[in-house]
Amino acid sequence: MFYRDERLALFIDGSNLYAAARALGFDIDYKLLRSEFLRRGKLVRAYYYTALLEDQEYSPIRPLVDWLDYNGFTMVTKPAKEFIDSMGRRKVKGNMDIELAIDAMEMAEKVDHIVLFSGDGDFKPLIAAIQRKGCRVSVVSTIRSQPPMIADDLRRQADNFIELEELKDVIGRPPRPPRMDEEDMPSEAAEE
Predict the structure, then answer these.
(1) Partners of 8 in the beta sheet?
(2) Residue 11 lies in a domain
(3) Which of 11-34 are b and which e, b meaning 16 or more Cβ less than 10 Å from the residue's Cβ?
(4) Domain interval for residue 20
(5) Which pLDDT does position 192 carry in this prediction?
(6) What is the arithmetic mean of pLDDT over 20-29?
């Protein structure tokens, strides 16, 4: 439930939203996502949070981060930390919860409605604090994946839950046709 005259702010937990969309089998088109929420209200700010591996020559997320930065999103990044766990496996850690929580608390006094793209149950106290400031909170995630990507208590705390799968036709990137190498092409196409 959105009101056309309300001031909105989007808070996107990048890795959480990516995992939820992937579990549902689609990619997010961030231009369409931004357009959809511009249509729903007065979009004041759209934040995107992600940790980056700084020492890698090429990061697969770098093109997305650069595109978002140039196209109306406020990027909040920090270096991810790599470590070896007790089983000897290489792990990457880059939690952005504190940064998102601080920004959301500051924005809660400047907007009417915050839309949180995350299913992380750690955000339940944040939502409650924002609501005490008189700001409405919608959460976008999914219960349709196995397992569900949203914590039940987060969903209960939010003023509104938006099922990500129901936004697929609005913010999903159209599937790309599979690329075919010349060897895989039908014989007529290979001869042309």
Answers:
(1) 43, 113
(2) yes
(3) bbbbbbbbbbbebbebebebeebb
(4) 7-174
(5) 40
(6) 94
